[in-house]
Structure formats: C-alpha cells, structure tokens
Amino acid sequence: MKAVIYEGENRMRVADQKEPSLAGPKDAVLRVTTSAICGSDLHMYEGRTALPAGHTVGHEIMGIIERVGAAVTSIKPGDRVVLPFNIACGYCYNCHRGFTNMCLTMNEHGPHAAYGYAGMGPYGGGQAEYVLVPNADFNCLKLPGKPFDEWEDDFILLADVFPTGFYGTELAQVGPGKSVAIFGAGPVGLMAALSSLIKGAAEIYVVDFVAERLQKAKELGATPINASHGDPVQQIFAWRAKHAALRERLRPGEEKLKGVECVIDAVGYQARDDKDYAREKPTQVLDNMVRLVNPAGHLGIVGVYLAPDPGARTDQAKQGVFALPMAELFDKSVTVGMGQCPVKLYNEYLRDLIIMGRVKPSKIVSHRIKIDEVPAAYEKFDQRVDGYTKVLIRFEGARAAA
Ligand SMILES: NC(=O)c1ccc[n+]([C@@H]2O[C@H](COP(=O)([O-])OP(=O)(O)OC[C@H]3O[C@@H](n4cnc5c(N)ncnc54)[C@H](O)[C@@H]3O)[C@@H](O)[C@H]2O)c1
Ligand SMILES: [Zn+2]
Ligand SMILES: [Zn+2]
Predict the structure, then answer these.
(1) Measuring from atom 21 of ligand 1, which residue has the nearest CA?
(2) C or N terminus of the chain, fewer CB within 10 Å?
(3) Looking at the structure, do residues 104 and 45 belong to the same domain, yes or no?
C-alpha cells in the first residue's frame, strides 16, 4: 500500500509499505477514505521532534472497516468510522475517567498514544491506504452516510481539530455571552472560534498573521486581528474601548477589564515573534495571553509544547523549559488548563451537530489532494502560503471498494 513516511527534516515521502494485518483479537484494519495533514505533523516535518526516519505519519483518519478481530463486537466490516487521534484502552484509570488523552496502557513511554506520532507509541499513521486500529470497539466512532458523501470533509475533522478546538473552549470556560480571544487561525484556532459560536460567546477575536486564515475566521463570524499590524493585545484593548455599547455598559471599576475572560492558545511552541514574523518566540502567545486575560479569567492551551526539541535555540528550550510571568498570573487569579484533547469526550456530540445540520466545520478545508501530492502539500502548508489551511488526502481507490 502507499503510505507517507518521515524521511528527515523537511522531507516526507510516499513509500510502498506492507498492509497492516490484525495483531490481536481486539484490532481492526481500516481502509482509509480520507485523512488529513495537521499543524501537529509540521513539528515532525520540521525535525522538531524525535521521530525516527521511516515512520508512517498521519493521525487524522476515517474510512471503512475492512477486517475485525474475533473479539470485536460493536463494529463490522463495511462500517464507516472516524478514529480519535488518541489511541486508548478504555479500561485504565484515566480512560475510565474520560481522559483517553492520558491512557496509561497503550504507550510504555508515556501517558498517551496516537497514530503516526513522535513519542506516542509504535503505532503506524493513517496518511496511508490502510491503518491498524487497536481496541477497535473503543477507538472507532460510527458514522452515518456513505464514503465521499456531503459529510466526508466534516467527519474527518472529528479525528482531531474540531474536538481540539472545542476542548480549548472547555479549558477556557467559554459559555453564552462570554468574551473570547483565540491565538492562531490555523484549523485548531478556527475550530475554537466555531466552538465559541456554538456555545453562544458574545465577543470572539481571532489573532494571526496570515490574511487568508483571518478571512476564514471572519467568515465564521469572529473578529479578525492581524498581528502584523501591531501588538495584538493592544489591538483588542483598542477595539473594545472604541465599541460604544461595550463602553456605555461599564459599572464602576469595570474599565479595568480591558481584555477578555477566556483566552485560547491554538499556536504552541513554534509561535512567531510579534515584532518579527521571521523569528520564533516560543512564549509569545503565552505572554500575550497573560496580558489579555481579565482578572478571574481562564486560559486554555491546546497549542502544543513539545520536548525534546532538537530545533530550539537554547538548552532550556530544547527541554521545553520557558520563563513565564507567574506573578501576574497569580495576581489575576486565572485558571490555566492545557494538554492534548481527549477526543472521545466530544466527538459524538460534535458528530451529531454535523448530522443535524447545525455546523459545517469543513468550511475551513482549503485543499483536497491525492497521496502522491502529499510531500509538496507539506511544504506549502508549512509555509502557510497559497491558502493552505486544511489539507485533506483523498484515497480514491477506496471509492470503488465502498
Ligand atoms: N492539544 C491537542 O490535542 C492538539 C491537537 C491538534 C493540534 N494541536 C496543536 O495546535 C497548534 C495549531 O495547529 P493547527 O493545525 O491549527 O495548524 P497551524 O500550526 O498551521 O496553526 C498555527 C497558526 O498560528 C499562527 N501563529 C504563529 N505565531 C502566532 C502568534 N504569535 N500569534 C498568533 N498566531 C500565530 C500561524 O500563522 C498559524 O496560522 C499546533 O501547535 C498543533 O500541534 C494540538
Ligand atoms: Zn491533528
Ligand atoms: Zn487507557
């Protein structure tokens, strides 16, 4: 089968690989219809992780079940499913509590596992024609409809970015009427904006440098803030101060609440320096979040902070150690939540919003390509040029089999 493998810094290649076969009675083999390239894949692509060369990548995967092991009871060949990017056992202490992002049994080196990802266990990725699904009863979300129908591009976003954006809003405690700022208008940031809209937030600001991505945020109904036009925190303060109705409603002391109640990081450790887009500044978004959040507000960090980072500039940064304005955080009494998304907590609810026509997350999809075009697409997506925002990989071979 064809599969995308990591070869080394800035090099992905389409290789001929052996098709996976069932490794145990609880496994399934999935024939992939669509998978996607994620901002998280770029950390590996850029050589910023310890991923060994030759590993198959891809953790956003949907398709049709091809084969199941003897102990699989709830799904069968022919079923259409999407996989949470987290691989989980379903029976450990953390899985029982819903923290499938912190499964204790699926990866001997850490409290988490995923398909095709550095540090997340030995599992093969799904930018491939077939993928092995461990614990298939627990790790498959059943989908209605037929492959390549009008929901295909919505459902693939249930593997990661839609639940992850939603998780950002959970960590930041977004709710009806709240004020929200999201750093990053990549797929995760845009899904956090969509989730904030679903939850009925009143003010939703999305910060980025890339005009095409900010345009998508605007089309979703958020207020775009272009960081290349100056300090984004000051821009949000100024926007709010200029808004007559927001100003006229202030009670005594409320003028101190210049920022917002909920702030989400959908950028991570490869954040760009606000003063110089060409430079990386890993703490840029964290620093901005602390300045922007109102006292007694909430921070949700879903942008990734990864170590070891061979590409970092300092020894401390290589270990993921950064200085933070702790006193200001404490002084403001904010809550801070972070981490990988426990996709399974949200994916069925978000699926049903799609089915019932309440949301259409695929509005953010920019490109649909064949597997042979993947290496070139990584390059464009990595440079965030030519409108490359969310790239889906279509496995047309599966169409005939469907
Ligand atoms: N927590 C999770 O479970 C989880 C899941 C998926 C992705 N992620 C992470 O989320 C992050 C975003 O991923 P993505 O798929 O949206 O793609 P992405 O990496 O393309 O999006 C990041 C966006 O941030 C923008 N950006 C860079 N510096 C900025 C700054 N200082 N201020 C504002 N915006 C800035 C970039 O221009 C880009 O548009 C990545 O770190 C990814 O690894 C986390
Ligand atoms: Zn992803
Ligand atoms: Zn578990």
Answers:
(1) 186
(2) C
(3) yes
Q: For the whole prediction, is pTM greater than 0.90? A: yes
Residue 234 burial (CB count, 10 A): 12
CB of 224 shorter than 6 A to ligand 1: no
Can you tell me the mean pLDDT for 25-52? 95
Q: Is the CB of 165 under 6 A from ligand 1?
A: no
Q: Whose CA is nearest to atom 9 of ligand 1?
A: 303
Cα gap 292→181, rounded to integer Å: 8
Q: Residues 271, 155, 220, 371: what is their CA dihedral angle, to the nearest 10 degrees?
A: 60
Q: How confident is the model at residue 401 (pLDDT cuts 50, 70, 90)?
A: low
Ligand 1 atom nearest to CA at 191: 16
Q: Are residues 314 and 325 in the same domain?
A: yes
- Boundary (domain end) residue, out of 320, 338, 356: 338
- Judge whether residue 395 has pLDDT over 60: yes
| Whole-angstrom distance, CA of residue 361 vs CA of residue 363 | 5
Which pLDDT score is estimated for 384? 87
Whether 146 and 77 map to the same domain: the answer is: yes
What CATH number should be reported for the domain holding residue 180? 3.40.50.720
Query: Hey, is 291 helix, strand or coil?
Result: helix
Domain with residue 142: its CATH number is 3.90.180.10
Domain count, the chain: 2
Question: Which ligand 1 atom sits closest to the C-alpha of 213?
Answer: 39
Same domain, 333 and 355: no
Q: Whole domain around residue 254: which residue ranges? A: 161-338
Residue 183's H or E segment, with its range, is strand 179-183
pLDDT per residue as tens digits for the range 206-265:
999 999 999 999 999 999 999 999 999 999 999 999 999 999 999 999 999 999 999 999
Nearest ligand 1 atom, CA 168:
1
CA 186 to chain centre: 9
Q: What does the pLDDT average to over 64-82?
A: 98
What's the pLDDT band for 39 if we cut at 50, 70, 90? Answer: very high
